[in-house]
Amino acid sequence: MSRTKLGEELMPKSVDRSTTGEPMTLSFGPQHPATHGTLRIVLELDGETVLKATPHLGYLHTGFEKLGEHLDYNQYIVVTDRMNYLSPLSNNFGYALAVEKLFGMELPKRGQYVRVIMAELSRIADHLIWLGTSALDLGAFSVFLYGFQQREKLYKIFENTTGARLTTSYTRVGGLLRDLYPDFENEVRSFIRDFPEKLKEIHTLLTKNRIWMDRTKDVGQISSEDAINYSYTGPCLRATGVDRDLRKIEPYSSYDEFDFDVPVGSNGDAYDRYLVRMEEMVQSCRIVVQALDNLPDGPINVESHKISLPSKQDAYGHIEGLIHHFKIIMDGHGIQPPVGEVYCATESPNGELGFYIVSDGSGTAYRVRVRPPSFFHFQAFDHLIRGGMFSDMVAVLGSLNVIAGELDR
Amino acid sequence: MSEQQTAAEVAEPQEPIVIQQLKEKFTDHILTFIDQRSELSVIVSKDASFEILEFLKAGSNPSYDFLVDVTAIDYSQMEDVLVEYDYARFMVIYHLNSFMTNERLRVKVPVNEKELTIKSTVALWKSADWLEREVYDMFGINFDGHPNLRRILMPDDFEGFPLRKDYPLRGRGEREKFNFGRENV
C-alpha cells in the first residue's frame, strides 16, 4: 500500500487535509518502558495529534492454547502462571475452577475460602503494580515506590504460602498445593491493618493532584455502549458506569457469602479507571477480613482418590495410597474428566478471565481456549486514543493495564 | 438410538424459550441444542449464522447483547462429532452473554473444510474484529466481510495454522530458517 493512500484512509473527516499535509508514522515499542512487556503500536501523527493507532501483537505469543492440548490438567496450571504475570494466583484459580466444573464438583468450604483469600490478595497486588507503573509512566515516581513497598509484603506472603513469588501454581484440580502456614493469618491481618493508611497516602499523592488529574481526566474516554460493544469487562467496564462483576452475578467459590460493594465509575476515562481500581483494593480487603474471620476448618481438597493426591503418609504407608498416587501421576492415567465442554469465567483483576475447555475423556484436554480480558481492552485502543495527544497515549495504555502475557498467550 | 432420544425428551420436556424462538424463526437452520452442566449450546447451520446471531443480539428474549468470545475447534480427531455434523472439520464458537438476565449461550457453527468461509460478525460487535482474526490466524477459517482479515498473533509470513490438529507441537519451521554453520557464520 502506498504511503499517500494509507494516509488518505487514516485521515479522520474532521481534519482538513489541505493544512496538515502528510501524517507522520511512528513505531512505538515493542521495546519501550511504557509498554509493560512487548507491545507495538504504529501511530499516525499529525503534529502531536494521534490520527490512528494500530496495535501489532504477538511478540509474546507462546502457544499456551496449543500446549493445553498436550499437557495434562494439572501440568497446565504451571502455564496459567505465565498468562497474567501480575496476578498468577487468579489465573490458577480460574483454570482449576473450570476443570472442576467439568467434573461437576465443588471444593470443601475451607478450600474455597483459601482460594478467595489468595485471589483477593493477588487482586490487591495486581492493582498496586498497575498503580505504580502507570503513575511512573506519568512521572510520579514516589507512588511507584509506595505501591511496590506494599506489594512486597504481599509477595512475601505468597512466597511463604506457595513457595514462589511469581510462578505460584498454587491450585490443583480439586484443591490446593498445600494448606496455609501457621502464621499466615497474623501476617495477612497485619497487612490489612496497615494497608488503608498506605492507600490514603497514595490518595493524597494522586487523587487531587493537579498534574495527575490533568493527565488522566477525560483522557481515553469510552462510553458504556462502546465499552459493551468492545466486550470490555472488569474495572475498565465498570469505570464507564456498567455494574457488572462476575463475583456478584455468577458467584463462584462462595463469593455470595461475602459482603462487598462493586465500585462503579461514570466517565469511562483514565481517571475513573484509577478510582475504580483504588476502591476495589479496599473492597478486596473487606473480603479477605471476612474470609479470615469465618475461615472454616477441615480439608482443602476434594475427597476423591481419582482427583486429589493422597497424603505422603498414605502413599508411602499403604498399597492403596501408592496405587492412587501412581494413577494420578503417571502419563496416560491421570485425571480424566468426563466427555464434554465447559466455559467458566472468573473475575480476575483485569476483568473476565474465561477458560473454555473441551474434554474427550482422556487425560489431556482436547482444546483449551483462554479468554483474556486484556485482548479486548487493547483492541479498543485506537478508539480511545484517536484524536488525542501523543503524550496521552502512555496514560491510556497505563490505565488499561494491558498484560502482554495474557494478550498474546 | 431412538430409545435414547425419547428418554431425553421425557427427561427434558421443555425447551428453553430462546431455543423455541430460534426454531420458530429459523426452523431448519437450528440443528440441535445441548443443555449440559447448566450451559446452553445451540448448533446452527453456517448459511444463517449471521442472521441468527443478529437475532440473538437484539430480537430474542432474553437478548444476548454481549459477545464474550469467538473461537474455533478442530474436530478432526473426534470421530463421533464428525459423524454427527456431516464431517464438518471445524466448529466456530460464539460465546454470548445477556446483560439483562446474565444468562450465557454458546452458538456453534460447523464449518466444512471444503468451504472454509463463514460470515463475519464485525458488523454486530466491534470486539469480533480481533477475535475473528485470531481464528483465521490459528485455524485458517476465512471470515466473509471482515474489514481487515490478516494474521494477528503469528508473523505475516508464517505458514500453516498452529491450532489445527495436524500441526505438530514442535519441529515444523523451527530449524529451516537457521543455517547452523552451513554457510560461513
The assigned CATH architecture of the largest domain in chain A is Orthogonal Bundle
What's the number of helices of chain B? 5
Q: What's the CATH first level of the largest domain in chain A?
A: Mainly Alpha
Residue fraction in strands of chain B: 15-25%
Structural summary, described in words:
- The complex is a heterodimer of chains A (409) and B (185).
- Chain A is mainly alpha-helical.
- Helices cover 49% and strands 11% of the residues of chain A.
- Chain A is built from 19 helices and 8 strands.
- The longest helix of chain B has 12 residues.
- Chain B has 185 residues and is α/β, with parallel strands linked by helices.
- In chain B, a hairpin with a 6-residue loop joins strand 4 and strand 5.
- The N and C termini of chain B lie far apart (66 Å).
- Helices cover 26% and strands 24% of the residues of chain B.
- The interface between A and B is large, with 40 and 36 residues.
Give the structure's gist in a few sentences.
The complex is a heterodimer of chains A (409) and B (185). Chain A has 2 domains: 54 residues, no CATH class; 305 residues, Cytochrome-c3 Hydrogenase, chain B, CATH 1.10.645.
Q: Secondary-structure map with pairings?
A:
The complex is a heterodimer of chains A (409) and B (185).
Chain A: H1 3-10, H2 17-20, E1 24-28, E2 40-46, E3 49-56, H3 64-68, H4 76-81, H5 88-103, H6 109-137, H7 141-162, E4 171-172, E5 175-176, H8 184-206, H9 210-216, H10 224-229, H11 234-238, H12 246-249, H13 270-293, H14 312-317, H15 319-329, E6 340-348, E7 351-359, E8 367-371, H16 373-379, H17 381-385, H18 392-400, H19 404-408
Antiparallel strand pairs in A: 1-2, 2-3, 4-5, 6-7, 7-8
Helix pairs in contact in A: 5-6, 6-7, 6-13, 6-18, 7-8, 8-13, 13-18
Chain B: H1 2-11, H2 17-26, E1 30-36, E2 39-44, H3 49-59, E3 66-74, H4 79-84, E4 90-97, E5 104-111, E6 117-119, H5 128-139, E7 142-144
